[in-house]
Structure formats: structure tokens, C-alpha cells
Amino acid sequence: MARRLYRRTPRLNARRIGLYLLLIAVAALFIGPFLILLSAATKPAGQDVFGFPPDLIPRPPVAEWFREAWTTIPYARFLVNSVIYVGITVPVYLVVSALTAYPLARIAFRGRGVFFMLFLSIMFLPGELMLIPRFLVMSELGLTDTFAAVILPAILSSLGIFLLRQAFSQIPDEIVEAARVDGANEFAIFWRICVPIVAPTLAVLAILGFVSVWNSFIWPLVVLTSQSKFPIALGIAYLSGVSGTDVRGLAAGTVISLVPVVVVFLLLQKRILNSMGGAVKG
Amino acid sequence: MPGLKGRVVGQHWYTPYVFMLPGLLFYAAMFAWPAVIAIQLAFSDYDIVHPVRFSGLDNFVRMAHDPRVWIALRNSLLFVLMFLPLTVVAPLFLAMLVNLKLRAIQAFRMLYYLPVITSMVAVAVAWRYVFNREGVVNWVLGLFGAGPTDFLLDRHWALPTVVLLEAWKNAGLFMMIYLAGLQSVPSDQIEAATIDGANAWQRLLNVVVPSLRPTFAVTLVLSMLEAMRAFESVYVLTRGGPLDATLTLGYYIWSKAFEDYDMGYASAVGLLLWAIMIVLAGFNLLVTRRRDI
Question: Global pTM?
Fold first, then answer.
């Protein structure tokens, strides 16, 4: 064993170093723009943001642009709004999706397949195409420019119902039958036995829900008019439209908006990465 | 699955509907009702101020004579054509790269995935800096003797730049889809091909690609639909400009509806976009089905 390692190591090392260099070069393409943003956000006023050759190191790094972004627009308000949007949307989304997916997986009834296809059809009604009619529905309901208008369309997704149905149907019958013999009703079986078992799937959906609500832009733009209800993404667009915003201030504001998503991603990266490929593949 | 014949103890005929009730209500209010309104509006005149007026096929006749619809259609199709190789081919190589058994490979997967989870608005700000006249891209091009270009203000470069942003932002997602596919390719097949003397390129073409067929079916549909409905990137980077160079169908619908309040006409264009997406998805389904048989 030891001898084999000894003999193979040198050749592997050259190949390995080459592969790591390639991996790092590709990584630079993907995170480079974020680093440039961070660099612009921390450069002092006297140092050029742009120029040939690019000079990315701030000398010295300063925090004043974060303060400027924070005060130019009601930044704290936008952050709180986004937290409210996420805090209401995600739990409701999980409960509604689980309730809907459960019978599609575990109760035999006529038309089950039709109902499943109905919920999957959401895939072919993308938000971009629903802007106009949903705006009119919200006017009809008297909900334009309210928090509810932002939240309601985000409660149902085909991915959520698809993944949860899959998770529920993989629960072994014996577990459920045992509870049924003990006299548990269907809701008790759903809530006390099945929901805890599909918790990993719920966690994945919670993360995806958080990311999509945090980043949502177009629908709030259409349905909201009061600045006091803007989510953070709309706040950034607003900041970039405020005349006289320094490129450094805009960069700083953008960096702050990225922090929550990046932190969640770093903490839960394994779960997110492993879910994504599998989720889309089905 | 519980027994298909006879009622299970504790279940009634109405049990599944009670469970699905909230879901069905949201479906009705946020999808079915708007879909009906969208179709109705496509055959009507509506400017928000005056009541909806049925106008038959007027909107569609108008569309056929509207040069901007044709520009938007052309730009959307160009978008798909440029977007496809960047999201269906390139991420396969990314996936092969991060499928290597190396230490810290998970960290690289994470870095490549980062743009997927960040907001388009934030990413667009970063890209405006990268593609600035005095930004990094122009500096690199300058090293090869190319003069500085205002990519987002140039009629020829604006659309490819927006496509590149969308592809860059989505590459990590497509990479993870391919990675899941690659990890289910039987390794004994690859070993057998290696023993038979196949080089890396031959192994890719003859073993890996054929066994990834179901994955390609997914990435192809996803890529086409994503490109067809591209809108947010256009909104935050170019607003359809310069001179309609980045006017996509999605952006045209938005500007007709929420800038001109020409809701009926915008809905008719929306119906066209919807029809194209259904045809593309259906076409994909047909092609991939046939291969399976």
C-alpha cells in the first residue's frame, strides 16, 4: 500500500496541480464579478474604481460607502420588508405544498392523476406571462400595493408539489398502517408521522423559497407603488436610479443585499447543491 | 401506496379534497383565473381607464403588421440560439471538471453555483462594472489590441452581453443537473471503454454522452424556455435598448402593458410567447421520446 502510494504520487501531483489551476481559473470567472463589486464598495473616494490595468485592492479599505448606501435610501426598511416577505411566504408555502402533495401520494381517489397534472401545469404558466392578468386580479381583489399582493402568487409551485409528492410516496406503508391500526385519523398520520419523515425535502424547499422570495423583483415592481413596501431587490434598483449615487455607494448597497443569501448558502451549501441536480432530474 | 380498492379506515370520499383545498384555492386565484383573464384580454382592447372591449382578432392583425413584434421575435430566437450552447454544452464540461475526485472539490462546486442564488438586480450591477468602458473585460481585450467597447450601449454587442449574463448566472444550475447525470453513468462502462483503448474524447462521445440522454432532454427544455422568457436581465441591463437591439418578447410585453397601458395588445403578444414555449416544450418531448424507443 505504502509503496504503491510512493510510486504513484509524483505523476499524480503534476496532473493534480494542473487540474487545480484550471478549477481556480474557472472559479475566477464565476466569482470575479462579485470580487470587483466588493472592491468598488471598499475603495476610498480618491481611488479610481475603473482603469487600465484594473487595480482591485482598495488602499485603504473604507466602510463609508456602506454607510452612504444605508442612508441614501431607507435601506433598513427594505431589509425588514424582505424579511417579512420571506417569513410569511416560506412557512405558508411549505404547509400548502405539503397538504396538497399528501393525498396525491398517499390517498387513492378518482382523478388523482388529473389533479397532479393540474398542479404540474403551473410550470407552463411562468410568472413573466402572468404579470398582466395577476395585476388585474389584484386590482379586482383590492390588493394592489399591499404585502399580500407580493406574497399570494408565491405560495404554489410545481416543484414543491412534485418533490413533496415524491417524498411522501416513498414512506413505507407499514409505518402508516401501524398508526392507522392505533386509530389515528388521516390528518394525524399526515402531521405527526409523514411530515417529520419528509423534513429533509421541506428543508430544501424552504431554502429555495427563501432565495426566490429574497431575489424577487419583477412582480413587486409591477404590483407595489409605495416605497415603504419595497423588498430589497427593488431597493437596489431604486438606489441605482437615485441621481448622484456614487458607483462605490451602489456597489456597497448591492453587497449588503447579497450578504443574507450568501450566508445561508455557505451554511447549507451541501443540502442546496445535492438537492438541485436531483430535483430537476426528478 | 394504500389499497386502491375500498376505503381505507379513517378516510372518507372528501378526505383528499380537504387536504388539497388550500392548494386548489391558490391555484384557482393565482393561476386559473389569471390565465382566463389573459386569454380574454388577448381578444380585447383595454387601457385600464376604459372598460374592457371585445375586439376579436384585431390585436393579432395588428401584431402581424407591428415591426417591433418581429424585432422582438427575432431577438428572442437569437437569444435561444446563443443561450443553448452556453447552457447545454459548456456546463457538461464544468460538471466533468467538478466530478473529479479531488480534495475541496465541493468548494469549487459552491463557487460555480454562487451566481445561481444571487439576485439578477445585484448581478446586473456587478456586470455593469465588469463590462464598463474602463472595466476588466475591455482591459483584457485591449491586451489583444481591441479598442474599448461600450458593450451594453453597442447595437451589436448588447444582446450577446445580456445572453452571456444569463448563461453565466445559470451555468451552475445546469452544471449540477449534469453532475447528477454523470454520477449515475455506470463506471464499469467507462472502465471497459478505457481497457478497449478509448481515449478521453472517445469515452466522452461514445459512453458518457449517450448515457446522459435523459439529462440532455431536461437541460434542452430548460434552456429553451429560460431563454424564451428572458426578461429580468433585459430590464435591469438595457431596458430593451439600444435601438431595440435587446428588445425580447418578454420585455416588449412588459413595456406595452406597464408603460403604454396597452393591456389587450400586450396580452396578445403574451399569448404568442406562451404558444411558442408550448411548441418548443412539446417538440422537445417528441424528439426525446422517439430516441428512447
Answer: 0.87
